[in-house]
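Ticket #4471: complex job returned nothing on first submit. Input attached below:
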Amino acid sequence: MTVRVGVLGATGAVGQRLIQLLEPHSDFEIAALTASESSAGKAYREAAKWRIDAPIPEDVAEIEVGATTPEDVPDDVDLIFSSLPSGVGAEVEPEFCEAGYVVSSNSSNGRMDEDVPLVIPEVNADHLDVLERQREERGWDGALLKNPNCSTITMVPPLAALDEAFGLTDVRVSTLQAVSGAGYDGVTSMEIIDNAIPHIGGEEEKMETESRKLLGGFDGTAIELHGMDVAASCNRIATLDGHLENVWVDTEDDVTVADAEDALRSAEGIDLPSSPDQLIRVFDEPDRPQPRLDRNIEDGMGVAVGGVQETTDGLQFNCLAHNTMRGAAGASVLNGELLAANGYL
Amino acid sequence: MTVRVGVLGATGAVGQRLIQLLEPHSDFEIAALTASESSAGKAYREAAKWRIDAPIPEDVAEIEVGATTPEDVPDDVDLIFSSLPSGVGAEVEPEFCEAGYVVSSNSSNGRMDEDVPLVIPEVNADHLDVLERQREERGWDGALLKNPNCSTITMVPPLAALDEAFGLTDVRVSTLQAVSGAGYDGVTSMEIIDNAIPHIGGEEEKMETESRKLLGGFDGTAIELHGMDVAASCNRIATLDGHLENVWVDTEDDVTVADAEDALRSAEGIDLPSSPDQLIRVFDEPDRPQPRLDRNIEDGMGVAVGGVQETTDGLQFNCLAHNTMRGAAGASVLNGELLAANGYL
Amino acid sequence: MTVRVGVLGATGAVGQRLIQLLEPHSDFEIAALTASESSAGKAYREAAKWRIDAPIPEDVAEIEVGATTPEDVPDDVDLIFSSLPSGVGAEVEPEFCEAGYVVSSNSSNGRMDEDVPLVIPEVNADHLDVLERQREERGWDGALLKNPNCSTITMVPPLAALDEAFGLTDVRVSTLQAVSGAGYDGVTSMEIIDNAIPHIGGEEEKMETESRKLLGGFDGTAIELHGMDVAASCNRIATLDGHLENVWVDTEDDVTVADAEDALRSAEGIDLPSSPDQLIRVFDEPDRPQPRLDRNIEDGMGVAVGGVQETTDGLQFNCLAHNTMRGAAGASVLNGELLAANGYL
Amino acid sequence: MTVRVGVLGATGAVGQRLIQLLEPHSDFEIAALTASESSAGKAYREAAKWRIDAPIPEDVAEIEVGATTPEDVPDDVDLIFSSLPSGVGAEVEPEFCEAGYVVSSNSSNGRMDEDVPLVIPEVNADHLDVLERQREERGWDGALLKNPNCSTITMVPPLAALDEAFGLTDVRVSTLQAVSGAGYDGVTSMEIIDNAIPHIGGEEEKMETESRKLLGGFDGTAIELHGMDVAASCNRIATLDGHLENVWVDTEDDVTVADAEDALRSAEGIDLPSSPDQLIRVFDEPDRPQPRLDRNIEDGMGVAVGGVQETTDGLQFNCLAHNTMRGAAGASVLNGELLAANGYL
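Support reply: We reran it on our side without changes. The output follows.
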């Protein structure tokens, strides 16, 4: 049975990736696209400056873009994907939920709200059930599910595997993030050619809090943040796609490289259409993963790990994921699939 | 009084920077240039593929390049700057020292030898006196002084200031290093455009050991490594010059951002011709320092720090220095000036 | 019926693209790989530093690489693809032809030889028959077929279409070429970051002579160079793949943009497995084609044209093709298919 | 005697370069800075996002930015430098001229107006006198002088030298332009990393018309456009500064490389504070000039030429100039110096 879906913020960088993923999707059918007022009423082809290096899907190109309000979305749409600036998301996402829509959102607003599940399906699918509390407390027919920030998603699958096996107490992470994470106009060429920027506004805090929620326990009612101490340092570099991260973890139990790589390689996946066959790929070559060479593994939905080494208190390793696929559009689609599989539509 | 100097490995990336610094130097005069056998006998203009964005000094361009052996260097040369591949350095530097030459070397061989001073003049000039032990034990008339690796030099001045003020127990550092650090042919364009490489062979170990020697104590005879635990993760990115580093330090004493910035800003310099007026510049803007904008502060001899934040166990901050100036050629020249000032020539 | 094929120079940049194209090929089966002496005897996985952003084909990875001599290639190989440095190609390609192998070569040696067909199948497939003269004169059982240089291939399909429609008298072309055209180690990162190089050794002459041979007449015996005057100016820029070219043509007949675009769009293709559905795609948007967005049209085998404008004496336009696909590996594979379709195997 | 100057549009990319040049200028003193309404009233330090890799001049940093109206500029300012978006320039520059200010403008509005001199001092200083007609016809006490577009300035000095020596009939030019030419936000990183864009809006027409005005004759009343046919093809590439151009010229007289290089090398300069010692530097190395290596010759005010070759109808060559120095800010400053030297202040 095909689920009719809508995309809020369809013209942006993540919106375009959402369309690239949803158009050929076996279970989903694109039924509505929205954007800002200035785009409303135009054909998607006109409204979006398509910048993906694959052609714009012809049938989607002809869809008329609506404004980002529930009124502009047909009633028979069952699932909404949202990738809006957080200020806009904070305002309109609740309107859609109140109007009965189920929303899988990539927008950063509300991710740490107690009754909003923040989910990576392979990591903490059980948190989904906090939606019952959400519906009860907010009186919504719809529902709001969030995926984490792209830089958080890159490191959390390996952190989850290592936490389960050895227990994590401290995490230090330094990121080398691609420009696409800031949207099409987010980083100018004069800022980044022959340069790097050691600051991305709000990013460090997102990594520090979201990761603890994702690895936190859920007792059926409340999600308790994981007790580990997380400190992040975020950098923008001149790559187009793919966030590379250097991670140090202190572990409760003793750990060897061999045991750690075993734990990573055997991290369990989940049976959803867009989930990768192998969640974590571990490289033996010390100079991998690299953004250009490895961001597309598992169609951009895998997480690559390499350079695993023992330290005095635990481990250090590098990890990489495609920030607009695994880290954003693909994450939302996967969450939509999770909602469908669990009867939330 | 002008010191006549020679440059070993004068055609390489650091060799060219050495010439750029030495040619206008008030106290030094270039009297000999050496390179590999294939370049010997040619004019420097022919032997070197000059790639600095300032013209090749005309008088240096006409110097005939010699082979890298003591026989090809005039006797009246008092000071040798060496920037050779470590294998070559390990072989020929001792020959020069035995022949009576005083060598300020940027080559990585022998940096951790017990009787070889590894010096950043503003940090551990007192280590220079281990040269007396060196001369005695090795029977040299000459002497061998080393500067650290470029990625080590970038972080050690701030580490020294913080160690003195608060005591360091643990250091984690993630680097974003420029391609010039690998020499002209070290990184191909296909490796680095739209990419980053999370591995630089041997670099992590250099940072982990050299930093502990630089901050180590010296009792007049032996240098004791500092007891702090250092773990490094090294990355190559698409910048031309300037190594940017994200650092976490755990401190013995409590520390605030204000106290830390005070300690950094008041780090003492040294009175040598090439030393910067202010050793460490601290930025208030959270997105600084950046390689392109800040690598040239203090004529490329300063260290820039920004993003100082408190963590659970200490601090995190970013630092930056020009890797072929402060981190290599300038470091060697400064060490040469230190040798001259201390009567070793 | 499957043709068993060998690849000479299999570890290089074009060699890897050849393997990427040949491994899934419906008619060809990889039966032999050769490289330099130092690689011979190793598994391909070890011999090649695989740098394509798709995984190395597992079955090819296990093939033992041979030396580049006919003795190291099994007798039942029917077709050889060659991508060797021109000096090596000049030496060993004749040895293979003499030993009876049919060779589709991307190497630049011998392209202008009178009895060597230089072919783009959609443009001058009829030139193939000069092979009869070649076999007669050289006494070969095998045969040697060449594809042109990557920068030539990019402009010749549109030139051919315009020449047929309007007659060309003068061509001026300025190129913006990707670094992959120089091989993996051909352009260092220090040469090209924040830079462009207005010279590629021998490239201008290749474009000026090869294009006139490709558009030349063939009377069954001799190929006569086209009489048009061609002047090229070649530049290397910081793109990974895709050569972009600005072209001016003076035409014998009057020409309008509409007529020119018609002629380009209706350029006939050829019915071979790797040939594109549409040879030339014409963009209406003035800022297209762009290397990153358009190099992969028609699986990298199409030629993109845009910015068609009238000039005083004819037209100016921009064109783009994927230099290691349409311009090198794909060109050779297509030529191999042409050889097979015409009974030369 | 020091001239008090003002800068309109002082916070933009060219505005910052203007300040970098004017602050240490021997004859000029910065007395007023203006920007858009949103910046008015702020200190320049706050209003400008300083992005030059040299420190912001401390005394300029404290100047309060005014709005871009004559009322916000002190009466004792004698000379105005303008670098405004052309729409704004078209509106406010006449207001300044009417209020009595002499304006040296880099803005593109009005460059082809018959009574507006478009000047490169070394090329057509005599055109300056059309200002008398301008003042008469427009009733201005002030005056409006323009410098050409950055891509025009790069090629016109060599064109002028060749035209004088051999007579030019046709010019074809292909450009590889730096991102700074579009201003700080003009080109996004996602547009240009691993990419090139074969279109810059309006740029081709500017090159085609401005070059003919610059080389045109002036009879004391009217400027007659040069009769040569000029066709330009403009590309944006991933360089920060420095426009590189491939040029073909057809000449009336026969020409050899030696004669052409003589004509270029002996192009006369002009005796103004900011003019270079040698206007045109000709490289013998075929791979020069290159943007990163050569944009700073003569402090960014020289024009570099290389790759001079004979063609059937004339010559081809490459040229390069620093687009925000020689091509914009430096061009305006030089024009300001020309105005001062000719008694227009």
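Chain C has two domains: 3-149+328-341, 150-322. Closing as resolved unless it happens again.
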